Amino acid sequence: MKIATFNINGVNKRLDNLLAWLATAEPDVVCLQELKATDGQFPKQAIEAAGYGAVWRGQATWNGVAILASDSEPVLTRTDLPGDPSDTQSRYIEAAVNGILIASLYAPNGNPQPGPKFDFKLAWHRRLASHAADLFETGLPVVLAGDYNVVPEPRDIYPTRSYDDNALVQPESRAAFRQLLDQGWLDALRKTYPDEQLFTFWDYRRNRWQRDAGLRLDHILLSRKLRRRLTGAGIDRDVRGRENASDHAPVWITLRD
């Protein structure tokens, strides 16, 4: 089973890119982030024509998350992250696919920091940690995939001082990600490549793609029941280099049946 996460940065703007990648990569499950489309604007027909059922939660202009499943319909279980009824941002969705509970998440960026946006980011991550702990304790096979907007370690960013004040690399942000690992979740990409420098995002500005000045922001975490089923992982870097590309590349894992 191949499970991928892809911050598409505008599902309609990048629809041709998405469909081309689906045709070549052939993932069984895809978690999408930053749809930047309302529910009614989601390209349901094009996704279905590509062979995928889908559930999604859209939002005009910003955010938006979805889960696609090859030749099947995801069974929707949740459309928001619990813990704050006042939070109306479309950043979390959950569905069951072939016996696995899949979550697609898009964590807040948090910039500028310090400030209310950074406070919201940390509060959102606390809610994620609480919900993740509950999921982990169930013992079910669970995947938490998406754009966490956290660079977990210094090696997950190119050598630079330009991000020193950025919310993505702050100690509090990294501690929030570490809390998930301390619960027992497995960082599948880092498990597969324990010593390599890995990037999943390259900003459009300052020729960062051309210079390979990247960051690792997109992560796939596995619950205890899936740890031993992990057989591979990777980053489809070439997708970032295509015309009209998202500033993120797809990240994927394979699981033994």
Automatic annotation (TrEMBL):
SUPFAM superfamilies registered for this protein in UniProt: DNase I-like
PANTHER family, per database record: EXODEOXYRIBONUCLEASE III (PTHR43250:SF1)
Organism the protein comes from: Sinorhizobium americanum
GO BP: DNA repair
Signal peptide: none
EC annotation from Swiss-Prot or TrEMBL: 3.1.11.2
Annotated site residue numbers, Transition state stabilizer: 149
Cofactor(s) listed: Mg(2+); Mn(2+)
Cofactor binding description: Probably binds two magnesium or manganese ions per subunit.
Site (Interaction with DNA substrate): 248
Key words, A-Z: Hydrolase, Magnesium, Manganese, Metal-binding, Plasmid
Active site location: 106, 147, 248
Protein name from the UniProt record: Exodeoxyribonuclease III
GO molecular function ontology, one term from the record: DNA binding
Encoding gene per record: xthA
Annotated binding of Mg(2+), by residue: 7, 34, 147, 149, 247-248
Membership in a protein family: Belongs to the DNA repair enzymes AP/ExoA family.
Domain of life: Bacteria
Site entry (Important for catalytic activity), positions: 218
